[in-house]
């Protein structure tokens, strides 16, 4: 029996992130939603302080939290405060919602690797926030770019090469 795990991240509009992650090896399910904000049961029109984020269900035998974060840091710009592409505001912040000390340590390690790589012109501003509740977004936001293939996204793979160096 597989013990699937979940990861919670935010990096701008949730549509583009979901669309890129859905085809990654080991990712079994994606949901878009709101996290890290001030109100319960947030909606698209009322989500103060919440980031547009995604919940990834993954098979830890096929991918790791570290590999998920590696891809995350290559598919959005983690050096812009509260902005991705044309989207601006705290809803579009870069954030990792860690569930335990191990995930927090891995997130810090990845931020250090990304900063040390020099691939981005600025320093990573991704916030590390404790996971509380993931609130699923409205149905029309789920799988949005599958339903609307010409819809807006500012997400794309910026670097083919992993930030993770092979260990010898």
UniProtKB/TrEMBL annotation:
Phylogenetic classification of the source organism: Bacteria, Pseudomonadati, Bacteroidota, Flavobacteriia, Flavobacteriales
Name of the protein in question: Peptide methionine sulfoxide reductase MsrA
Entry GO MF terms: L-methionine:thioredoxin-disulfide S-oxidoreductase activity; peptide-methionine (S)-S-oxide reductase activity
All copies of domain Peptide methionine sulphoxide reductase MsrA, residue ranges: 6-154
Domain of life: Bacteria
Active site: 13
Keyword Oxidoreductase on entry: yes
The family this protein is said to belong to: Belongs to the MsrA Met sulfoxide reductase family.
Listed EC numbers: 1.8.4.11
UniProt keywords, alphabetically: Oxidoreductase
Reaction it catalyzes: [thioredoxin]-disulfide + L-methionine + H2O = L-methionine (S)-S-oxide + [thioredoxin]-dithiol; L-methionyl-[protein] + [thioredoxin]-disulfide + H2O = L-methionyl-(S)-S-oxide-[protein] + [thioredoxin]-dithiol
Top-rank EC class of the record's enzyme: oxidoreductase
Function: Has an important function as a repair enzyme for proteins that have been inactivated by oxidation. Catalyzes the reversible oxidation-reduction of methionine sulfoxide in proteins to methionine.
């Amino acid at each position: 029996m597989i013990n699937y795990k979940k990861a919670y991240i935010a990096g701008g509009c949730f549509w583009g992130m979901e669309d890129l992650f859905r085809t990654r090896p080991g990712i079994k399910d994606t949901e878009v939603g709101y996290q890290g904000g001030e109100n319960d049961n947030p909606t698209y029109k009322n989500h103060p302080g919440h980031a547009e984020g995604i919940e990834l269900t993954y098979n830890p035998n096929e991918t790791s939290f570290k590999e998920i974060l590696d891809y995350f840091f290559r598919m959005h710009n983690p050096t812009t405060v509260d902005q991705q592409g044309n989207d601006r505001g705290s809803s579009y912040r870069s954030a990792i919602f860690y569930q335990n000390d191990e995930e927090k340590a891995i997130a810090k390690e990845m931020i250090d690797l990304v900063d040390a790589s020099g691939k981005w012109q600025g320093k990573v501003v991704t916030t590390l926030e404790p996971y509380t509740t993931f609130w699923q977004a409205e149905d029309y936001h789920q799988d949005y770019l599958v339903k609307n293939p010409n819809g807006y996204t500012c997400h794309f793979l910026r670097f083919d090469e992993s930030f993770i160096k092979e260990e010898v």
